Amino acid sequence: MTQHMTIESLNARSSRRQVLSRRQVMIGAAGLTFAVALGANRRAAGAALAGERGGKALSPWVSIATDGTITIMSPATEMGQGSMTSLPLIVAEELDADWSKVRVVPAPPIDAIYGNPGFQGMMYTAGSNAVTSYYRPLRVFGAQVRRVLMENAGKKLGVPLEELSTEPSAVVHVKSGRKLSYGEIAAFAEVPDKAPEVKPEALKKPSEFRLIGKDVPRVEVPGKVNGSARYSIDVQVPNMLYGAVLRAPVEGSVPDKIDDTKAKVIAGAVRIVRLPYGVGVLAETPWAAFEARQALTQSVTWSRTGTAWGFDSDKGMERFAADAKDLARGATEWSKVGDPRGEMPKASSVFEAEYRCDYAYHAQMEPLNAIASVSPSGDSVEIWAGTQSQSIACEAPAKVLGIARDKVKLHDMLMGGGFGRRGNRDVDFIIDAVLLSKEAGRPVKVMWTREDDVHSGRFRPISAHYLKAGFDPSGKLTAWHHRIAVDRVGPYMDPVRYQMSGGKDFIAMLGGEPRGYDVPHQLVEQLYRDTGVRTNPLRGISFTANKFATETFIDEIALKRGIDPVKFRLELLKNTPRASKVVERVAEMANWGKKRDGRGVGVAYIDYSGSQVAGIAEVSVDRANGQIRVHDFWCTIDCGVAVQPDNVVAQTESSIVYGLGMSLTERISVKNGAVEQSNFYDYRVPRMNEVPAMHIEVIATDNHPTGAGQMATPLIAPAISNAVMQLAGVRLRHTPFTPERVKVALG
Amino acid sequence: MAINFTVNGKAASTDAPPTTPLLWVIREDLKLTGTKFGCGTGLCGACMVHIDGRRAFSCQTQISEMAGKSVTTIEGLSADSSHPLQKAWLAEQVPQCGYCQSGQIMSAADLLKHNPKPTRDQIVEHMSANICRCGTYQRIVRAVERAAREA
Description:
The complex is a heterodimer. By secondary structure, chain A is of the alpha+beta class. Chain A contains 20 helices and 30 strands. In chain A, a hairpin with a 2-residue loop joins β12 (269-275) and β13 (278-283). In chain A, α1 (83-95) runs parallel beside α3 (130-157) and α18 (645-664) packs across α19. Mean pLDDT of chain A is 92; it is low at 1-51. By secondary structure, chain B is an alpha+beta fold. Chain B folds into two domains: 3-76, Roll (Ubiquitin-like (UB roll)); 84-150, [2Fe-2S]-binding domain (DNA polymerase, domain 1), CATH 1.10.150. Chain B has helices at residues 22-29, 74-77, 84-91, 101-114, 120-127, 137-150; strands at residues 3-7, 10-14, 48-51, 54-57, 70-72. In chain B, β3 (48-51) and β4 form a beta hairpin. The longest helix of chain B is centred in the last third of the chain and has 14 residues, at 101-114.
């Protein structure tokens, strides 16, 4: 018998309510966000969770087959960051599993069980916080399953629990020399009504870890060297059509007149469909879909609705900058420490500076795409997509179709890059497929061209920064004021979370304060701007812009005061030992004080959501053509417990390269509301011949793990700007540092 | 008119319109989805295959040019991931999102086939035709060097 009950997560909101069958609610879930009593049907418990798992469900997270195969659910989606390995590895550690017997499967989209505690319980992979947020609960869940196995073994062997221990995938009774493998226990195990209590002190000490910190190969990597890894773009389903969508050049516009004469005669084109926000094409082949879409480009007129009409990003930037430094312009307080409003006027001297950052594009290698199959009656849909949020990927289509969320069957696929692009609340790329499938009455695979992906990108916002520092008579930095005029992100990309967070625009504002540094009075303010341009979280989010401003400013202050930039930072960091350590160590690695011929070095330090990172760039500048070359980049990162240390290195390499592009070449400009760039020829991302030699040291500590997926990205621009200053005596204040801008600065 | 060519040693035939890029025939008709669509303009290398033994952007190759030619895709590089580059890619844990890596490996295979002991500079120059947005470049260099050493 299946009974239903409504589960409400701790963060109770009606929209988060989900109906779970009693069988879905079992041990393990209790520690996450809710607690329920369990039914009597123990042996079948959890079987309904996911079709893919085999063996006995010992928890919603773990099943064990009699052959010893252990299936562990992966609640985070995989975009190359490695969570599909590191999260199950945390469960396996406390479960004392033999990792070679572990199979990882994507968790089904059930927020109440698998939701991310760091995102109000929704299933959302972002912010480099998967390990951070899931670390404690997953350890407990793993330990609970281990305890259940031991209790069952104790009963079978007729020995008390205290005499039992485990070795990888086996319960051992040392006294008698008897041993039961996890697979053997699974054959007879009974799962208790309530998960056994596991106290924090019963968990392993870091010194006892067998898996965490030991670098296991990532589970999905073998399929990525032979072409067998499956991304949504690779999916084909029977009777499928291909779709493409021509979107409005300006956000908020809708199609007015559609002349489909040229498009519909393309061989293979099936139908041209008016969508609420664009014009869709249905075709027999992808190439026909793209050709028909191309044939529409000059044949559709658009309503002049939408805020962005007429917007020009160069002019917009000038206005942002003027407003940021005009203290009479109203601003919203973002953060405050001490009494900055009272203390700044008392400063015996002050220093001011301004910085600017342009729009930037994600450029994930897999263009956006999805496959949807809406049932003939329209009352259910099956979706294949790469998404950073299984919750949103179910909720948004359900809303569009007017059906219940559990009528959406989602296959979350590997992502060919995410970088923040695949987590927006309206999942534009999935809705395309849903609407066209509904229209066609058949499954449809919609693919965006690279040009679509750029033109209808969702960008890191433009921002202009005004900073002011106040000093006491001894020259000590006492007051800090940072005003940020920035295109809004939260209200556009995810109005639901924006509201839940009390109207704080985190994606635009985090990192504006000089966290870690001893500055007694600080004020950070937002000048909220809405240009109408599509904006989004993008790897490094606002840290990239805000730390460019703050870390360059810190350098300017050091130079003004005649203090070495590393020494100045260490003075300000003297009360934060972990921060001091990363700065000291990176300076050693780079041989900071060394005189370099024709090259300059620059340093930056960041506390990024608790992770301590520092970097030093060594650069040269070609004065004739304005090209900056970064020859070496040294980087230290302390992210607490490093679950997969080599993957932390890989993610740091990755985030350095990403930051390099945004520092030197990557720039989206908007003219009359439309994006000017189209493809990799005018949106240039780093290639192999442009990346520096990267020297990375992970300083592992026993602290709770913090993020690793994007932490170095914001180091790059300030480190380069500071290095160019040291080398050439000019200050670069506007990212990206394009050759034209460098030449202007060099004079 | 049907166009006949060879893919991974097997005969293939298509009646796709002549301007259709080889990429879409490989991916959607032959269902060899290891070759990826990235930019459609020959700028990123995600679509890299070998045609008659040299690397080529399959998104820039019209099917009409393919009559009688021989294509190798990532699926045909080895039957069991045993090509020295594939082994090196695993040993160095190169892939992150992995989407570009078929193209990277096909580019590198073309390099090693014609220059079994490339210098670091030669590797960098050759491989700069391919974009990896995850920035795995440093590991790609290490993997190509390893494959050249261990092959």
